[in-house]
Amino acid sequence: xxxxxxxxxxxxxxxxxxxxxxxxxxxxxxxxxxxxxxxxxxxxxxxxxxxxxxxxxxxxxxxxxxxxxxxxxxxxxxxxxxxxxxxxxxxxxxxxxxxxxxxxxxxxxxxxxxxxxxxxxxxxxxxxxxxxxxxxxxxxxxxxxxxxxxxxxxxxxxxxxxxxxxxxxxxxxxxxxxxxxxxxxxxxxxxxxxxxxxxxxxxxxxxxxxxxxxxxxxxxxxxxxxxxxxxxxxxxxxxxxxxxxxxxxxxxxxxxxxxxxxxxxxxxxxxxxxxxxxxxxxxxxxxxxxxxxxxxxxxxxxxxxxxxxxxxxxxxxxxxxxxxxxxxxxxxxxxxxxxxxxxxxxxxxxxxxxxxxxxxxxxxxxxxxxxxxxxxxxxxxxxxxxxxxxxxxxxxxxxxxxxxxxxxxxxxxxxxxxxxxxxxxxxxxxxxxxxxxxxxxxxxxxxxxxxxxxxxxxxxxxxxxxxxxxxxxxxxxxxxxxxxxxxxxxxxxxxxxxxxxxxxxxxxxxxxxxxxxxxxxxxxxxxxxxxxxxxxxxxxxxxxxx
Amino acid sequence: xxxxxxxxxxxxxxxxxxxxxxxxxxxxxxxxxxxxxxxxxxxxxxxxxxxxxxxxxxxxxxxxxxxxxxxxxxxxxxxxxxxxxxxxxxxxxxxxxxxxxxxxxxxxxxxxxxxxxxxxxxxxxxxxxxxxxxxxxxxxxxxxxxxxxxxxxxxxxxxxxxxxxxxxxxxxxxxxxxxxxxxxxxxxxxxxxxxxxxxxxxxxxxxxxxxxxxxxxxxxxxxxxxxxxxxxxxxxxxxxxxxxxxxxxxxxxxxxxxxxxxxxxxxxxxxxxxxxxxxxxxxxxxxxxxxxxxxxxxxxxxxxxxxxxxxxxxxxxxxxxxxxxxxxxxxxxxxxxxxxxxxxxxxxxxxxx
Lengths: 546, 353
Fold this sequence. Notes:
heterodimer; A: alpha+beta; D-Maltodextrin-Binding Protein, domain 2; Dipeptide-binding Protein, domain 1; Dipeptide-binding Protein, domain 3; 4-stranded antiparallel sheet; B: about 350 residues; mainly alpha; about 80% helix; globular
């Protein structure tokens, strides 16, 4: 007697379920992005600001790179050179201190305001005065809040002059100017949105230079302008119809925050996004098998390395440093763990930068390593720890290294940790070994040399926490050589000096460089003109059409 | 007559009891919130992460690091930092998030509706299907239906939701193309539609934008159904055991003897009594979903509070973590209070006392 009544209820239930299913499938679902809009699936949770005077994150650099113009830009066909962006031409004074830029005629910002040398001078002034993370780039030229208005100024409406404190290598100065910190901002627009600030000991100025507003807006003259940024959701760009160069073919670009590789791949296959930016090897294989999709890759300015803290007496022995370089199974790591995301690379300068070498003197060789360890008096091996960020491919490489070290009798203990946690320990020099990455701050060899081979004060109180300092490594004469290379006028000679520095570090530096990151993106084969640049700020979207 | 006379002091006694109850509740609330604040604050400060590093990044020069440390007050003794924080928090100022640079309260008001909407859909599905399933399993104990319900519950409870999410995405989105992905709306709508409450389904219906409503529905249904399945698993198991307990009671036998139909006994008498503890189960499951299902939010690119807090935690953005924890804690307390009220409504005995 229970049955029929329960049966009735079940019938209602299943009828309801069937109706729900019907409703779901009834809808049309031809997923496609709008024809005038480019949609990218991209992990953009690293963005903290879109103000070029503040932003220092990779995804933010891509946004500012597309929405602002610079004086000079990296030449994407020969990345050891720069070409003029808003600068038509430039001259350098005989003493090598003053750079004078002549601007192209008739330039305009996205707001419609004319772009003059006054705006360029203002942009440098606010960068230095705000003194946020990217300010040090121009600070390298000896610019300070007190002298910047004298050192970076407009001579007339179309002439801008920058005076640096030392006769630096021309290539260095121009490369720094090509970074997003050199973005030219619309002075009038920015000041309209500036907020008053009460000056204090830490911050001497009475304005925020529009920083608050620029975090989520743009005031540039690039091919696009920022419409909105919603943290962890999306960045929306719209075409700047007043752009002085070749106008973008698409009206709108949307970077949609998507963290998960498989999700990105599915959305790409279904046509809900046009470009997937964070695919893992498995999903890249699926893309390769799909005729409607294509993949593209470009080496980026980031190298991954293992470093040996010289405070540890065992790790300070030159034979141990050498032995460890023989104990990385480069081939196996290259073929599996970093397949599609990196290329084996052993020198500290990323390929593409001036002077970068591609020497690979080290091969996985246990016998050789054992011999070296015996010479160091450690024939029976020893125990050592490595702080390891729990993220791939770092963890995988650490585990692989643990095993290959074991073959030579060295017992490696991996200490897993969150990124900020391992970094905090690293910066306090409390690690034995550390595995991490270093990305160039600007596309010049000095960016990496200044951290791998510079260490002016190796004491615990040292203020300049370069990578050499963090590993308590005194690079001795290399420190002076790094400084000399910065002043070398002859670009070819300068390149040779960096080659020499890299070879010295390869031979005896406590850094086991393993690979250089390559960025891979998969995209709908319908897209034309899509290309990845050597850095995130040169991942240009303007040439893309559908 | 005498009964009415006696009820006056009784009412007064009850009113006094209510005031005492309320006072006790207020004290409990205050200590809970204070405890929550203190524990989160100190955990946030003892983690071996330099908060300044989170703000300025790895590359900042030493001078900038020192300046920011002073600005943020990180060089003060810990208890002083706590007092400063407490004073701000009491005025509703949870500080500014390092990651998004917005006031934490603004951020939470932006991300919380997304989670609220998803959790509500999830709970509606979970309770709507879980309760009947549990009842059926209890009534037909040991039958095939019971076994099926058990397997469904077991799978829902033991399979990692992350895996299930990817699998369902593969099936319903990539292969069958029934649902939409990623996020809460299609790109075409996302930047033309202005939300009012932040609950897209409600907003779209309110403004009569039926195409947006449909699109929002197609986006929410899959993550909602997944969370629903997850809570269904729990709710159906609990319903089954509550129902088994009720069906063994004497009043059920009495009702049967009286000749009531079995359907009436099960769905009106037994379920009504089982509903009292069931409300707590559903409320707790709802509160659990409101904390933000981090993995589901990650897979579906759902900009909810779980994702927000996890991301903040990983980046040592302590203001955001603290603000988020307090909001979630308050929601938890509010839901508990609400289920207490429902108790009174469902169980007349609790009303008298």
